[in-house]
Amino acid sequence: MSHRVSETPIFVPGVWGPYFSAMVPGLWLNEGGQSATGKLIEHVVQGHVAFPELQSKAAASAQSIYTYLNSHLDLIKKSLPVGFLTVDLHVWPDFHGNRSPLTDLTLKGMVVGLTLSRGLDELALIYLATIQAVALGTRHILEAMEAAGHHINTLFLCGGLSKNPLFVQMHADITGKPVVLSKEVESVLVGAAILGACASGDFASIQEAMAKMGKIGRVVRPNHEHKRFYDKKYEVFLKLVEHQREYRSIMKSS
Do residues 74 and 21 touch, judged by C-beta distance below 8 A? Predict the structure, then answer.
C-alpha cells in the first residue's frame, strides 16, 4: 500500500483519493495499492515443488523460510549483487488483478524465464524475482503520483514485509529512494497507540503525538551503482503488461 499526504488535493489517475483528513488531520491522502504483495510471495514460494525441501532445511537451521531463502541467495550469487540473479527472470505481479495505477482487475500474473530446473536454487530465484516485481509495482505507482504533482524523495515502510531485509533493499534499489524503518518493529501498533493517546487527551493533535511517539530506526539507502540494471528491469516490467494486453487483443480479434 502506497500512501502519500499533501497540503492540497492532487488527483492521480489510477490512485485512490484525494481524501481530506483521512489519515492525518488537515492533509489530503492519496492511496495506491497492489492487489497482493505478501500473499503473492507466499503463493509463489509455497506453490513451488521445492517448498517441502525449503521447509525442512529452514526448520533444521531454526530459521524462517524467508530468512533461509535470503541466506541461500547470498550463497548462489557468487560475485554478483544478489538482485542481478534475475537478469533473465521477470515477473508481472498482478496475479489478482491490478489496483494501481492501471486499475484493471482483468490483468493476470506473468513469469518469463522459467526452466525445467526444480531445485531450491530455482525457488530462491523466483522468490527474488517476485519481490522485485512488487518493488517495481511500487515504482510504477510512485511514478504515477509524481507525474500528477506529488514530490516523493523518501519511502517509509511498515508492516510484516518491512521485517524482510531483502524486500526493503529491493524497494530502495528499484525506486532509487531511501527507505526509513520505524525504531519500533511493530509500527502499526505504534499508530494505534498514537490514536489512543490523542483520544485520551495526552496530546493536543495527532501531529504532536506522531512527533513524540514515532521514532526513526534504520535508514536503508539505494545502491546507486545498480541503477542501470533496475532501470532495464523496469523497462521489461512495463513491456510485460504491454504484451499481455497485445495477447488479449489478438485472442479477441475475429
Answer: no
Please answer whether residues 93 and 134 qualify as being in contact, where contact means their C-beta atoms are separated by less than 8 angstroms.
yes
With 0-12 / 13-18 / 19 or more C-beta atoms within 10 angstroms meaning exposed / middle / buried, residue 223 is: middle
pTM: 0.94
Query: In angstroms, rounded to a whole number, what is the distance separating the alpha carbons of residues 254 and 154?
Result: 48
Distances (CA, A) of 66 to 21, 40, 84, 172, 202: 37, 14, 19, 19, 40
Report which secondary-structure segment, H or E, holds 5.
strand 2-6
Q: What is the pLDDT of residue 251?
A: 97
CB distance 69 to 108 below 8 Å: no
Expressed in angstroms, the distance from the first to the final Cα of the chain is 39
User: Each residue of 103-112: pLDDT tens digit?
Assistant: 999 999 999 9
Interval 151-180: pLDDT, tens? 999 999 988 899 999 999 999 999 999 999
CA distance 159 to 134: 15
**Element of type H or E holding 52:** helix 51-60
Tell me the C-alpha distance between 111 and 130, whole Å: 9
Angstrom CA distances, 188 to 137, 162, 181, 195, stand at 23, 11, 12, 11
Q: Is the pLDDT of residue 23 over 90?
A: no
Is the previous residue joined to 18 through a cis bond, with omega within 30 degrees of 0?
yes
Integer Rg of the chain from CA: 20
